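Field reference: sequence -> structure
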Amino acid sequence: QVQLVESGGGLVQAGDSLRLSCAASGRTFRSYAMGWFRQAPGKEREFVAGITWSVGRVYYADSVKGRFTISKDNAKNTVYLQMNSLKPEDTAVYYCATAPRSGSWYSQGIYDYWGQGTQVTVSS
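Structure field:
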């Protein structure tokens, strides 16, 4: 079993920054990649960013390109999401998830473990 714990969410104003963390633990943890998703009230969960563990290849949703940066610390089994220039439309619960193999970043079906989520609220 793998446990994912997100942290770093909070209430900020538009234009502010936050850094989310996702720490993985449990059985010998090794997956192909990690992804960040978010779900706003009344909306479906959507892909935000992803990173591969080995070479650090990254991928972003168009809505966050240039504002969000995903990174990793292999030694700590931790992935980060640096969010800058936050907008009210970024308000959502943010989840991290592990992907055991390559596939479409957007497809939630390739992710096998999910965290409980951390709330990000951006006020205007």
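Note: The mean pLDDT is 94.
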